[in-house]
């Protein structure tokens, strides 16, 4: 096959806009070919939704694309420039191990970045090798697809290809490249970079680009940049509320890891909380708990504040007035976040309508879960199916008292019992990617070449609200005696 035929068969359909921004925003890049590309996993349904042909994507030529050995026709590989506050400290970053191949236009006219992660060194690599290990790339694949299954906005994973090369992270590990699909990779850090290192004109160009790509409604607003800020704040309020509701801990909410599209991005040391505790941290490098579960909403404020600062010169000619507008937008974020969280919690508890005491009722349950170290997901799962297992929480008198208040609240609503259960099932996943099951799948795949556990896990996670009997094994908690879970950046 000629490359053009292969391109047509695979369904690549690029129209690249980022590369038309001023060249200070990126570095065009040559590919960094690897020894032995081999496909590890491919996302058939995602490929189809992108207008691509799964069969053709399994061809040798297509796999060379996923390993970063060949650019498909129409691709214009580049590494994006951005800055980021890493645990609060500002650094110049950029894609140190990623390449944006281009923007795929779907049959429905949607635009998605196609990015290779682990594709080799770039001008932004800062001493790193530009590579990624198979385990962490499969981990991103599993968790991002789980988030999609949960209905949470996220970047997605199209494929993981092994490189046949070894990388070194304290030990020798198999290398791999992840093909990531995102609405865009514009980050708070992209604005931080533009505001700090480029001209005001560049900043306005980036703001216009972001409005056109993600917030077209802001183009008609009286103050378009304020509308952009409000739009970003609204999407973060909704996103972070969704994280809190399922117990997702991102782990490294640096400003370079907050996407302006409102998608969850950059799955490094993330994990789902087991026992309910707002102080839960999994990341080995988050020693002060900056990105603990209970801190995430406030970190949203912190990151949005950094974003708002970049926009100040565009918000108003008068500096004080610009600050006032920014502050109002950020206050709006907190109000919206609380509203989303409260309505989401009501739904998790099957409560229709609103009563003044709902917040207190929810808070009491949270306190009880924390006191009795109850599993967050399984507590709501039990309440949903109406079967309370034998554990410290459900056996406590405090819980019995709480349950009485809850039942009384439910009895006051006119909806049927059936409708109440349906509401709870739609809002309480019966399964999440439990840490021990993710580790088990990764170990089988990356150490023994056995992909079966990962495929089974992915199948279960695709429908987390199904409450199907065959999924039940994935709801089982890790055995006692398994120490506290730790995640690593894997860079
Ligand atoms: P992350 O922790 O993945 O969000 O990455 C933070 C920054 O470090 C980004 O600029 C990455 O591109 C860069 N980075 C991470 N791993 C590597 C690596 N192995 N080689 C070069 N740069 C890297
Ligand atoms: Mg990052």
UniProtKB/TrEMBL annotation:
GO terms for molecular function: AMPylase activity; ATP binding; magnesium ion binding; manganese ion binding. The keyword Transferase applies. Its EC number is 2.7.7.-, 2.7.7.108. It is an enzyme of class 2 (transferase). Mg(2+) binds at residues 257, 266. Nucleotidyltransferase involved in the post-translational modification of proteins. It can catalyze the addition of adenosine monophosphate (AMP) or uridine monophosphate (UMP) to a protein, resulting in modifications known as AMPylation and UMPylation. NCBIfam families: PRK00029.1. Belongs to the SELO family. This is Protein nucleotidyltransferase YdiU. The lineage of its organism: Bacteria, Bacillati, Bacillota, Bacilli, Bacillales.
